[in-house]
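User: I'm putting together notes for a lab meeting next week and I want to include a structural view of one of the chains we've been expressing. I don't have a solved structure, so I'd like a prediction I can at least talk through. The sequence is below, exactly as it appears in our construct file.
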Amino acid sequence: MKIAFVDMSFHIQNTKSSQFFIDILSPLGEVHHISNIDAWRVVPKLKPDVLILWQYMITPAEIDSWGVRNVVLIPMFDACPHTMDFWNQYKKYKVFCFSKTLYDILRKNNFNCFHSQYYIKPSNAKGLKSVTNMQNAFFWERYDRLTWDTVKHVVEKLPVKNLHYHTGLTQNDKVRPTADEVLKYNITFTTWFEDKTEMDKILDKAGIYISPRLEEGIGLSFIEAIARGNLICAFDAPTMNEYITDGKDGILFTHDKFPAKKISRTKIALMQTAALERAKKGYKTWDKSLNNIRAFISEPLTDYNPKLTLKGFKIRSIHQLKFLIKKILRRA
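Assistant: Thanks for the context. Below is the predicted structure for the 332-residue chain, given as structure tokens.
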């Protein structure tokens, strides 16, 4: 079986965030990891048995123009619309959902879809972090929609004595901690890590991880933190609130809703233990689902017959022409 796995070029060149799923598919046959830029040239020549579009939501006319009879869409909750006005046009394909919220929307409307919640095997076998680590927190200022202006209201309810603040926004001084807050929480800053191990060393010392996004597609950063044994504080939205029950195994907040009172170290420890237990159970469920995932991916679409429409032909021809022009210019 030949599988064309079309992914965003940024994932392939930088984050490698889809590699774990490609590894899952490898027992099915040849998996060709193709960037969305090259797909228009590569997929028609490859003639795959299965076409997987990872976060790459193109129109049905474009998908049909490739002539693959088994098509699986893998959208990310934070990067796609959630209305049926959008999704009804994709009803003839299969959809794999990492988000239970998105799955429920599609399943309710009789889509051929599958859901499995991704977990990494927990690495913290002992369970609890030390008391010192429970007082250490990590926040990655990654997006301007979630900054210190909001996060500080969560931190002030936690037993935080040391906060590491990783700055992802280059010009954001107005919403960063004040000099008094830097002293109060003993805040240390980084702006860049040469490699991931530098970041991991800091995260290993932190008992509390403040998730950096308002929404997630999967949530690899906080899923890694859960597996590490960190207590997660996250915005109350998918996919974070699909992994966390507020006050039981993590903390959920919004721009105007925060913990009502100071949370003790004892309470933090209890939530941390509950989170680790949830991660252990979640990983077992995820691991058991792998064969079902492969079966869903490989199962043929019986009622789907891809047709090359005039619109699809024009779009494909334009992409192929652009590639040919680039090839000629490179040789010139």
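A couple of points you could mention at the meeting. The radius of gyration is 22 Å. The longest helix spans residues 265-288.

User: Perfect, that's what I needed.
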